[in-house]
Design a protein that fits this description.
single chain, about 280 residues, alpha/beta, Rossmann fold, 5-stranded parallel β-sheet, 12 helices, about 10% strand, binds adenosine-5'-triphosphate, binds magnesium ion
Length: about 280
């Protein structure tokens, strides 16, 4: 598998228009086959998460960013299905509260980064502070333009201290977004997800693409890479992200901890106890 083609190399200038949101080229088959493949991937991910938790050594941070309807929620639901909820946390970053705004923009982020043995998924993240904040000029350029470097340094510190970071930008196009908005407006089971403000953001699509492109080019580092995930096809998005997360966990070369002492003695004692209980 060559998922590396979706990874943004450090210090290069990619163009988002060179990434096809409809791409499904690494999967041999279609939706039906991908859904079947997911059953096995969910199982594998669940085993690896258990090992991460048991070993208690590594920390995994997964960052999801996307335009509205890009599929952050769906990804979390599908990729992490079956994973033990005790070892996985989701942190969603919404409009900052007055308290959060009174601190620096990384303050609310840092307290949600994973502890040893944990896997944390960020639904939106520190990157909102160079996306929505930039597009709407919520702070002046001289402030937001410095944030790329802060974020790189922050993520460098996290990885130096034992965190593995994966960043996924879910790439959909305007046409697919329209389709998903129509579904949200028309389908009574999806209407709750519709927020009229989302249409105002859609009008700024090109500004967002520029902000996303700069984010990808300036913050995809050797220690915390960005992947541009083709996301028009939900099944491909889920399959690809599951593959990348699994590969990353496997590369950590984790092991179940060795017992502190030889358990042979306890095994014998347990046998004697249970026999005498019969
Ligand atoms: P989503 O759209 O991710 O599925 P949601 O609809 O449940 O989430 P929203 O109320 O839309 O929740 O929350 C996210 C909103 O908060 C987005 O419009 C996002 O751009 C905004 N937001 C997040 N972080 C910031 C930030 N640092 N500054 C300003 N706005 C932010
Ligand atoms: Mg929203």
């Amino acid at each position: 598998m060559d998922e590396e083609k979706y990874r943004v190399p450090p210090k290069t200038k990619i163009k988002l228009k060179d990434f096809d949101p409809n791409d499904t080229s690494l999967f041999d088959g279609g939706k039906k086959e991908a859904k079947a493949a997911m059953v096995e991937l969910n199982q594998k991910l669940s085993e690896l998460q258990e090992l991460l938790y048991a070993e208690g050594k590594h920390k995994l941070l997964i960052i999801l960013q996307a335009m509205d309807t890009g599929g952050k929620d769906g990804t979390i639901r599908s990729v992490f299905e079956g994973v033990n909820p005790q070892g996985v946390k989701v942190a969603a970053f919404k409009n900052p509260t007055p308290l959060e705004l009174s601190h620096d923009y990384l303050w609310r982020i840092h307290q949600h980064t994973p502890a040893r043995g944990e896997m944390v998924i960020f639904n939106r993240s520190q990157y909102e502070d160079v996306l929505v904040v930039r597009v709407h000029s919520l702070v002046p350029e001289e402030i937001w333009s410095k944030r790329y470097e802060h974020i790189n340094a922050f993520e460098r510190m996290l990885t130096d201290e034992g965190t593995t970071i994966l960043k996924f930008y879910l790439h959909i196009d305007l046409k697919e977004q329209a389709k998903r908005f129509f579904a949200r407006v028309e389908d009574p089971t999806k209407q709750w997800k519709f927020n009229p403000g989302d249409l105002t953001e859609r009008e700024r699509w090109n500004d967002y693409m520029q902000a996303y492109e700069d984010m990808l080019n300036r913050t995809s580092t050797a220690w915390a890479p960005w992947y541009v995930i083709p996301a028009n096809k939900k099944w491909y998005r889920n399959w690809l992200i599951a593959k990348i997360v699994i590969k990353t966990l496997k590369d950590l070369d984790m092991h179940y901890p060795q017992p502190a002492e030889d358990l042979e003695h306890y095994h014998k004692r347990l046998l004697e106890m249970t026999l005498s209980e019969e």
